[in-house]
Amino acid sequence: MSVLGIDAITYGVEDLSQCKQFMLDWGLSLVSDTPETAIFECLNGCQVQLAPAGLPSLPAAIEEGSTLREVVWGVENTTDLDAIASKISNDASFVDIQVDGARRIGCTDPNGLAVRFQVTRKKEIDVDCAAMNTWQSKPRMNAPAPVYNRATPIEVGHVVFFVADVNAVEAFYQEKFGFVSSDRYPDRGAFMRCSANGGHHDLFLLQLPNGKRGLNHVAFTVRDIHEVFGGGMHISRCGWETQIGPGRHPVSSAYFWYFKNPAGALIEYYADEDQLTAEWEPREFEPGPTVFAEWAIDGGLDGTTRRPKGAGRPQGKFLTEKN
């Protein structure tokens, strides 16, 4: 069986109107809007659903307030769906339902999160991405790198949760769904990808000393580092607050920018993560600030001045111009 990645996520939110505006600013397309739910899509069809936190049909929350209530993973075909169903059908939380005319199965993971699977609805897309010139390789000739005024995310690339028992949840995703561990903080964190060949992580599990359960962040893949910057500055101009970024993760090599998300916890733009195969050997790290970020800007950049917050607007036509 082959899990291809995240097909859809569902948030239960306390302020639906505010969260809808945030997702529009974030760069998602609104495809359905009712009093009970708003559904947005990324470029490849990956969906983000918003619903009132008190909606009875929502799966149970793993924490108070606005948060993620469900993650739907896509598989290649019905054979893969049947294979997963055979592994979880005896679970008391097993569900086998129809959603918009398609079969969706799932259960509740050891952390209390609703995990679902369906034959993927995402589509193949062709997007222009910046080529990076290095000393050895110069693929971008006679062409400037792009500058983005905002981001249009390609998909939900990964989700990150605080879990009460990282080893138990890691084993669950390995045994039931075939996920593969990429790197670890021993007994504290597990980076996992859906299959042997893929991006560094689709799921990250993080155990805190107090055993807190909840959402840490949802990450959206964008084209390249330039879209991370352009998207982040647009969100800053819209008035939303940076948590940290832009910056770069040394563990996955990805460039990032995190914002506070009214739908729950944090939300991230990221690009240029490591790509792994079955030959990859998981590494072990000791948690720490320099492991999280090789470098990062605390508080973000001001989208109008394009400088760190409080630095003021640049003067003159050239940086070197003096009064």
From TrEMBL:
The cross-references to InterPro entries, in alphabetical order and at most eight, read:
Glyas_Bleomycin-R_OHBP_Dase, Glyas_Fos-R_dOase_dom, VOC_core
CDD domains, per this entry? ED_TypeI_classII_C, VOC
VOC domain residues: 155-272
Q: Where is this region: Disordered?
A: 300-323
**Protein origin, superkingdom:** Bacteria
Give one Pfam family.
Glyoxalase
Q: Per its record, how is this protein called by name?
A: Glyoxalase
Q: Which organism is it from?
A: Lampropedia puyangensis
Q: What is the lineage of its organism?
A: Bacteria, Pseudomonadati, Pseudomonadota, Betaproteobacteria, Burkholderiales
